[in-house]
Design a protein that fits this description.
By secondary structure, the chain is mostly helical. Helices cover 45% and strands 8% of the residues.
Length: 408
Amino acid sequence: MREEQEAAGIPPRYDNTWRDADPELVAQKLAEGAEYTVRFKVPPGARVVIDDAVRGTVSWDAESTVGDFILLRSSGVPVYNFCVAVDDSTMGITTVIRAEEHLTNTLRQCLILDALDAPRPRYAHCSLILGEDKQKLSKRHGATSCNQFRLDGFLADAMINYLSLLGWNDGTDNEIFTRDELIESFDVNRVVKSPSVFDMSKLRWVNAQHMKMMTVEELAPLVEEQFGFLEMLEEGADKSKVDDFVFAATSLAKQMMETTQDAALNAKAVLGYGLPASFDDLPDGEAKEMIKQGNFYPIAKTIISDTEANNFPMPDPSNPMDVFLDESKKIVVADEKSGGSAYSYSAAYKARMKELSKDMNVKGKNLFHPIRLALTGEMSGQDVTKQLSLLELACAENNPVNAKAAGV
């Protein structure tokens, strides 16, 4: 019967075979042990109207829309709509906010509540959330659970903030809210009827704004969790060494992070050194064009000679955290700045760069790009002394880093 109705484009509903059956025939069937269901007998001509907080006035012809619907299955188990209506009534629920897909469920629940002479709650049926392809959001669009977003490095407060913006605003241009601010500002009357698109780029932006409001100390435990997910830290490693490494990695990535995972992946990139062994293996692009200019090889050779002669400034193994703190021991998070005193590794590195510039008669990007590529394997990134200090932390004796997982 259902298949025939669907094939004919008719909403599936009961054909009323037993709606007005002879009571004696019903009693006979029960005595024979025949299976049965209990249905709600929709009054002829019944019409249900609600004032939906999102969609305005919504009305149904109950008989043609749902017909006599089931309350108790043949197993004796009550159906969802019966349970929900009774539960809403007994719990004194005043407002029900849910997806528009529940509209026909609302019709059934209103009929049950009216029959029980129970007050109806206020209903608000929100539009569906769509993927970026404008199709209903589903597994094919990416993360399928709240925990997956946690694994991907999104903050709980940022997720709540972003989800609240899907179909709602507070009437201003503000898009960043704390939980308390959302509680204070939210009004169901400002929920819009049009569907919203789940934009991953916008979610990452919102997440980044929340992280910018946090200190390195507040972010570090969340970044450490990401290192754990990537298995980049050795089990049972010295806690103080773990703390230093995580603190340094968080400080290093603070300005570029959109998720806490970015700090762990950035550390992995820093430790990995992606410069190929030969020019021919280098992909076409900025680095290859820079090398063709002729400064890279002589500068790289000078750095190698300096290093072999122990003349090239390197992080102090006894104080590798020096570049991440200024002289007053405050955290340095700016990409282009490094900490330390006038006699620190950072100061010695800068002094050697000035000497190289003078000795080789090269300055500006013609000096710094070859040096960065030689030392980090990349044409751009955070401060070189910070990157080398992170590498020192990862290579020191009894370091906390799983070298294989981290790609050291």
